[in-house]
Queue: 4 jobs
Job 1
Amino acid sequence: MKTLAIRAGQLWFPTTVTAPGACASRSSAASILVLTIAAAPFIWLLGGSVIAYHLAAFVALVATVSARRSQRVRVGSIEVLLCGYLFLYTLSLSFNVTAAEPDRLLASAYNLSLWIVGAAMVFVGRNISHETFMELHGRALTWLLAFILLATFYAFGAWLSGYDHFVLHPLTHFLFAIPVQLDGNDLFSASVRLNVIIRDWLLETTLPRLSVLAPYPVALAGLMLCCVPLALARCFDGPRRSVTAAAISILALAPFVWTLSRVALASLILASIIVLSARYLHLAIVALSLSTITLLMSFLLVSYLYDFLWLREASTSYRFEMYQHALQTTLDVSPLIGLGVKPRVSTFTIPLGSHSTYLGAFTKTGTLGALILTVVTLRIAWRALLVATRTTSPAHVALGISVIAILFWMATEDIDAPQLVAFLFWLHVGLLERPYPVGVGPATAGQLSPHGAGPPVAVRFAPPPPLAPAAATCSPIVGALRLPSADPSRS
């Protein structure tokens, strides 16, 4: 018999489990995650995105729970809240089994499974003990960006050859036929086939949208939000890596723009402004000016491609009309626990409650579920900002930017649809819950500090702060104005 100490907030609950001969460590879980992320292009080519990340999350969860006795397993407030959301989701889904259409039930159950993956990934990310994981994780994400760039050149060649809708069967289709429609709009079809470039989902135009390594273009934009900040963080790892990481990250703006996702681009810029302004208050004006110039230049570039602003105007009005209809339907039918599913109506080509994680939560789980998700979102944003303003690690600053950008992106997109985006986002949330490196003085060349560069420093790892509201000195903004306290309990 082995006893695992499970931490939830500031309380400790001794839990006795039977684990004879358990030898898997949390280093094994870290290896599983890195290998899964690095293998994402091959998973996509094989058409395995539907289930591959579920399996990876499950195996990593088992490896974490079955860690050695000397290692503590922590459970935080985010996992507890997500379990509450899962309970409400399941309850609402079971109440609406007879009223919903079978295909809507299956789709909702699959969305539920991705929320389970999310809770598991937060738990695994919180408990990873691999010291070099952040470095390996950054390499894997840089490799994903490199693959996206290669696929972008291929897609551009296809477009020049006259293809404005280029979709392929996965490699496994040549071994055994997969019953999937290449023009199907459901998530299963979009996840199994290889979407290279596709037409706009609303308007039949000659301007395609890039969709490699993702079920649809906006999902690729979300994936870029997960990868680009971490790849840029590698610019602090040495001259050679700086040039490589910077080149890949800058070139990655091309596929980012080709997704034609205005919200994703705005989310990255806004998250960068928020984090960097909180961290470097004396550079806020410079950051704002550079971000504004970047935003204007990006929109000019996209407009030059082919009248982009007019094209997406109809999409925006259609989207907000659907939001209003979904909100009114939920309030009329089941405002407390929701509809359990995202129903289809003849007025719209997509289910009600789609293209917004927050509205989708209200549609499926009602007021109670939306309230829980709101608390989860605020908790994640607070932690991301706190870590980004206090850490000496460039990778942790990038994590904060990435997570906050995805939280903005979720306002107009579903986090429980694109499997790889959900896998990475919730992993990043968990990583931010781990102890993060802080210094007792100005940072060295390979580190960041709210007060600039300087002589070498002693670096320590700050434990997670209390979940209860702390004193005013623990405010993220206050923390950006001074060095972290030498007392670990206040870091």
Job 2
Amino acid sequence: MRDLGQRRGYSVSVNSFNLVLKIGLFILVVGFIGILVNSKLMIGSGSSSSVVLQEAPRGLVPVEVKFEGLAKRGVNLTTQSAVLRDVKYGGEAKAKATRSSGGGVYVLSVEATLPDPVNTNYQVWLVSADEILPIDYMRGSGTSWSLSLRDSDKYSGYSGIWITLERTKDDLPEEHVMEGTF
């Protein structure tokens, strides 16, 4: 038989207290996380904006807008296109360039279908009667290559355009691939 007198009576209540404390702490942590998530994600609220929409005041009178002066201040853009001819691949390569200028802005767009330049780069050049200007390297992969430029108008004096195959990144044109004139 057991001697019940040697047994402590509070051991069951300490275990129960620890269990209740753990459950309470768990509920408190879950509640805190829920509040934090709700406040960060704005769950249940329409918007975090502090703008309040109201009805406009009564008695407002419409204002007439005149457009005559606006048309006179517009900028006329000059747009030109060039179909570049293949000078390297025997007609396999194709490219088209479009440029627009006016109001101090110059926009150049070049789209090309060229053979994959394994370990080399295609570069676009603008050409005038006495100067050759490197623009930038084309971006793309496989046979699809393009270049886009938007800058102040310092390129309108260049009427020619080249695409070259470059082995070294410098300011000297290497192998001509495509040539054209605007």
Job 3
Amino acid sequence: MKSFNKHRKSIILADCEKEEVEEFAEGFKAVTGDEIFINSKICNGSHGKAANFRRYFIYAVYPFYFVMKSRQYKYVIGWQQFFALFYVFYCRLFHIKKRNIVIAVNFTYKSKAGFAGKIYKCFMGYCVRNEYLDYIHVLSYNYAKICAKEFGISKNKFIVTPFGIPDTYEKWKKTKVEYNNYSFSIGRSNRDFDFLVNAWGRMPENELLVIASDTFCPKKKLPVNVIHRRDIIGDAQFPYIANCKAMIIPIDDGTICSGDTVLLKAMSYEKLVAVTVPSTLGEMYIDDGKDGLLIKKDLKKFVDIFSKEINSDSAKEIGISARKSFLKKFSRYAMGKNLCQLLKYKREINYFENIETDN
């Protein structure tokens, strides 16, 4: 059995601008000392059936190119999880010699209804119950347990670290928007905006809430102090986060990992962040009362706690602590470094000695 060529390069397969994962790559490199290269193919950008088909097509086709060059790589890191999943799908399907350590980063699975849902679960199971996929990165210990049970795999296959984002505070902190003295809530999926609207109906009328979501359909007339916007998307959201006095993240399903980017962006901008619990966000990111608020999804409790904290002297102190926590634990550099350190802890680098490969 030949030893793994430790001089081979490692790659990140991403679906975003390369700049978004450069800090992650640097953190990873800080632990391994190896060169790591970012390969990106942007899949998103628009909505609709045609856009969805194009995205799925890229998910399936793009990784095949790297399978054909698999002997060149040491680590294959799927920043876009489906790039890693299709990579191991092809390796298993065509019985490619095991040459790499493959990690699916930011993994999430949500069951789908009907026949399509059964096909989807079969595909996901084929990929995760697969010797070519070495590790699955998730954002919460509870979610690791759920996925392990769902697919009948060992919890040892999971790596749990918080998410991380680039620090853009200096770029956006001096921008202005048309609102003053408002709280902000944004999101497209797994948000319980109906709960938030009901709670805000009990807040004083001079407390303004701006909800930014192009998927939220209010079930009733909004209170006079709630503004719903469908056009605040992409980079346009950052000035609204930078100028709000608080960010609120009302979670629908507390077992699904979502809202991480919004939470960390608000923390990095020194904002008071309130998250409903249970949620993976509360489990992994917030130290309640110190760098954020965790509030049970009960109308009375939410109103009592949030209305007390929003205009208090401690709100600014919590925001300052939030940024300190972000810089120490939740930057994208910290994410890459923490993930790689856990790989070493799991003796992953030694595992290369057991991989057959060509010269």
Job 4
Amino acid sequence: MVTKTQSKSTVSLTGLAAALHFCVDGLCLCCLYLVTTGIQDLLKYFVVYNVLAFLTQPLTGMLADRVKQRHWILLSSIILLILAVIETVCVIPYCSAAPVFLLMLLSVLLGIGNSLFHVWGGKETAVRTGNDIRVLGVFVSTGAFGLAVGSVFLSRALMFGLLLGICILALAYLRIDTAKPIDTTEVDIESKVYPKPLVWAVLILIMLIVAGRLFTGESFSKVIDKTPMVVLLIGALTMMGKMAGGWLVKWMGMVTSIILLLVGVTICIAAKGKHIGIALAGLFMVNCTMPITLYWANVMLKGREGLAFGLLAASLIPGYLIVTLLN
């Protein structure tokens, strides 16, 4: 049974992990934009970063599942991000032609650092809360707003502020974590063991849904003119949608919530060009499904929540590459 003290610790850890997610995604975008602005072929560096950040997550996720002291994954991620900031500030600006090697190295540092962080957070939140769908939504939500803030308020000051935030939040997390306030053996996810063919059939279906969600979200985003304030609004709505999805399921039930979201998104797709409000509503509802897919992936891969998180992240890459090439 989880005590009141353990419950407070869980809330604190969830808040810190979510705040870290905001800072990490914002920092990565800041570093890349600061050194690639004005470079003609900047697209390839962003592609390298995104491929590494997402496509390596099944591998880093398996690492998170095997490592008992997961704080080392968080610390490794922070070290890579610190090195990326050092390169951004102290190395690349003083290389006259900004050599391709250095820019690629930056993309690699940021991509692997980002990958390690995400699977750490996905594993931690799932295990510590018994796969609480509300907590999953809170953790995954803040990265979207971090990206929006990073793109709108891009600056060295913001980059340093985000890095400082990462260090402070990580220290606070580790201080609570090392106190061992939560007995994770009593916060189990699901006791049922599913046949392997069923597990992988469901996982493949979930991954297809995740890839489809990216295309659907992009279809809503395309009809919206991107002013700085609108970018922030989209980031905020995306974040709130991911947060709201878990609470919606707790309030209305899994089946009712899924039906409601499917109907709502379908209506918004049909009418998205009529008004910006419809497109924004559709974007909100699409993102409400994020914690639902993550929850079921964790159920299917009980004990391998890092791999579950990584597989869903990797399933975004095919869609991302197609969207990037088409734009």
